[in-house]
Amino acid sequence: MDDAGYWDSATVAPLHPVARQALLAAIEDGWADPTRLYGQARQARQLLEAAKESLAEQLGVTAQELSLCTSGSAAARLAIVGALAGRARAGRTLVHSTIEHSAVLASAAGHENSGGVCHSIGVDSAGVVDTAAFVHAVSRPDVALAALISASHEVGTLQPIDDIAAACRNARVPLYVDAAASVAYGEIPRGWSLLSASARKWGGPTGVGVLAIRTGTRWSAPAGFDVDSNHSIPLAVAAAAGLRAHRTDLTQHRSRLSELTTRLRDRIATTVPDVEIVGHPTARLPHIVTFSCLYVDGETLLHALNRHGFAVSSGSACAADEPRPSHVLAAMGALTHGNVRISLHTGVTEAEVERFLAVLPATVATLRADTGVTAL
Fold it and tell me: What is the mean pLDDT of residues 279-296?
């Protein structure tokens, strides 16, 4: 399939060719129930164990510390719910940022509904968490868990994970990091107690989430979740193969993508009137650009760009099935309408970027004229 113009890799990256090959091979060899004792089952079990070993190695953990889930969102929920349950005797307070993934915020809301306490820490206009406030919050009594996304998958801003992790260690509070965006295109964070990621962000298949829990971290499996339950072996094999292949050349790709997103940020700011480029200008993931246009509806702009062959996102990245203003942009004090998120994948070309930059100003101008608004 032609991926030209597909610029939504922060949601789902195109399937990596190596992941595709691994998936097809594993469908042939990994179809049996790995819990059985006959030959086909042993072969399937060997494939699953090898996939987990590979994923664990790349994330810097042991296979025993790693569990597979159905999605990154499921892994995030399991991390929060399981850690709060495991640490119930230590406290009932959850500290998290205002820009966490919707799965984390929903779990926090459920915790409050069950009598728990949540401290939500704000971010500045660039999307960076208030480190001093976060450190103060985790240092207080009764804190069971801290949660901080490693990098916003809506605006790309990197978070001070090292500083927060050090504060959590001092306070003897486990830190959960949603690292889905960073594992895909950034550096893998350090200092965490729990970490989650999603295979579809790095060019693996949809249907695989990863939850890593450091040995010694108190975590209680929610009812109905069995870490030893059957998984889709072909999907797990493809996820592991895709991550290894993707990150092998990632340093080179990051440099090129960073140059392309810098060009997009600079040119959009100078060629489109009344536009706000969102996110930190330098401390950011290399593949994401988010901007908001005054006097333009984001969903309308998305459809107009799609007619030109560009697939981008608008609204909350966590709620594509129900477009609504982004809670991340709202937390940053940025415009929450007329916003577009571009997230490039490793196959995007310079020619595609130049074509987008040629198309965007006229597209925005046309939409504004249709509504009778003239930009200042």
Answer: 95
pLDDT for the residue numbered 336: 87
Q: Residue 241 above 50 pLDDT?
A: yes
For 313-340, the DSSP string reads B-S-TT-TTS----HHHHHHT---SSEE
Q: What is the pTM of this model?
A: 0.94
For the beta carbon of residue 82, count every other beta carbon within 10 angstroms.
Answer: 24
End-to-end CA distance of the chain: 41
67-91 pLDDT tens trace: 999 999 999 999 999 999 999 999 9
Which pLDDT belongs to residue 115? 96
| 193-227 CB burial, b ≥16 within 10 A, e <16 | bbbbbbbbbbbbbebbbbbbbbeebbbeeeeebee
Q: DSSP secondary-structure letter at 65? A: G
Residues 201, 127: Cα–Cα separation, whole Å:
21
DSSP string covering 164-194, please?
A: HHHHHHHHT--EEEE-HHHHHHSPPP-S-SE
DSSP-assigned states of every residue in 137-156: HHTSTTEEEEE--SB-TTT-
Predicted local confidence at residue 1, as pLDDT: 46
Answer yes or no: are the C-beta atoms of 3 and 346 closer than 8 Å.
no
- Would strands 194-198 and 209-213 be described as parallel, antiparallel, or unpaired? antiparallel
Length of the chain: 376
pLDDT tens track for 191-214: 999 999 999 999 999 999 999 999
For residues 358-365, average pLDDT? 97
Helix (H, G, I), strand (E, B) or coil at 246: helix
Structural tokens at position 178 = 């949603």
How many CA within 13 A on the CB side of residue 135? 12
Q: d(Cα 16, Cα 243) in Å, to the nearest integer?
A: 9
